[in-house]
Amino acid sequence: MAPNILKSSLENASFNIIFQILCRGVTFVLNAFVVRHVGQAVLGVMNVRLLLLESMILFLSREPFMKACLTNTAEHNWAQVVNLLWVTVPICMFMSMVFGYTWLFILSPGETLPPYYTFAVWAVAISCVIELSSLIVQLVASAFLFVRLKVVLDTILIAIRTLTFISLIIRRPENALFAFGVAQLVAAVFYTTSHYTYFHFYITKLNKSKDKKKLPIKDGMDECLATEFPFKSITDFLPGQLDNSGSLLDKKLSILTWSFFRQGVLKQILTEGERLIMTFMPMLTFAEQGMYEIVNNLGSLAARFIFRPIEDSGYFYFTQMVQRDKPIADQNVVTVQESVNVLMQLCSVVTSIGLVVLVFGQSYSSLLLWLYGGSKLTADLPVLLLQSHCLAVLLLGINGVTECYTNATADSKTINRNNYIMIYESVAFLVVSYFFVSWFGPVGFIFGNCVNMALRILHSTRFIKRRHVGTKYAPLLGLVPKPIFVTFLIMSAIITKVSQAYFFPDGKLIHLIIGIFMFCIVIASWLYEHQDLIQLGINKWRNRHNKNKKSN
Q1: 3-class secondary structure, 187
Q2: Which of 368, 324, 322, 363 shows the shortest CA–CA distance to 475?
Q3: How far apart are alpha carbons 46 and 105 in whole angstroms?
Q4: What per-residue confidence (pLDDT) applies to 36?
Q5: Can you tell me the distance from the alpha carbon of 316 to that of 16, in angstroms, rounded to the nearest whole number?
Q6: What does the pLDDT read at residue 6?
Q7: Which residues, at least 6 apart from 487, have a Cβ–Cβ distance to it below 8 Å?
Q8: Do residues 428 and 341 touch, judged by C-beta distance below 8 A?
Q9: 8 A C-beta contact, residue 124 and residue 184
Q10: Cα 474 → chain centroid
């Protein structure tokens, strides 16, 4: 009995969306709290410099290993996987020292840094090392579909980090960076120890159940996965503990990891480009960086709590369903058909969401900023930033799905070839962003990101088209919106723009009601044209509900 990969991927996406909503909601409120109690300059240091430091260390140390080791987990030699993932700890320590030194002694401050900046830098670096020491456990949780565990621990992590930060900053708002550093360390210690603690009790329960020839209660996994769980003790998560008849490291996984690492360097430059430019070429003050981050977080809410979980779950799904080293025509017809349908539907969903955000964002950015920060955020620059973000959201959603399929199904040779293409994309992105910022100010970062996303989409869609050439499948048709949906989107764009001109800012309520009405019409038109997808979802829910009733 094979694990239901699609079911678990959908469940993972659902839980992750809920978690991301909670996480971004907390960040959203926390940013407003920091601005009101500490100031925009401190927010700029935390959200640009310090979070960039954390992102650089964790992404380069963790992402290549996780992507490689999540590929075809059913055939893993887990002793070799454990050894490979523990290599991340010394790598993370090295990167922490290099980046920490750079952040402290090489970067030009440009202006006076807030108190406890040095402590915050080293706290972030140490917290990354602590978190990486549980990477093997995190991988096992993903590979064996412990979906609820990830959601629960991530939610508690956010709560602990937020409560620690707020409890310290309320007493001493001038020591905000000290509170930030302490919160990072406390959260990292919790995240690591909680993973090991959970699996200690799970393995103990599993061993007792096997002795009694009865499986424990499942946590998002099929019975076959429980019986094939390779770890008999918590010490098996340490290197060299599992029985291994082969070499210390899996050569194929090591090569794939190295490919993802080289790609990851380029992808990190593309993903964090604006923060890198702000940090290494300080063209904006810390206060301006803080303002940009406020609007950036607000503008990318949809991308972060909807698109990213879809991308992560889609990557895991496609790695399990589509074989990297075989042409599509030579693979199982049923599996290919399902994976193509999933890709097409994902493309359709993210494109539709992006178009809705783009259309309504042009007329309701001012109202949203007013609700969040009052009249001081309804100036021309914040509104223009948020309106520009709406275009970036559309491109980001499309790129997330197409790129996750590319990374999940390309072989090592293709990934290596793609790395050279990404070099040119990275150079183009940095050059375009630099000149756009020089010409347009902070809005130039968003225009640069749009160019970046467009280039990556072009590259990914070309790969998908070549992957399915000579077959009857055309998953990229999902990127073309339906005609009725597009018609009502155009009507909504015109009506809401007229509403903004006549009713904002004096008649905010009327403007909001008109927007809600047009939004409902647009959603109804989308549902009408996607009845097959809605019916499929209803049938899946009914089957699951009936199955649960029978099991009870």
Answers
A1: helix
A2: 322
A3: 17
A4: 62
A5: 13
A6: 56
A7: 525
A8: no
A9: yes
A10: 26
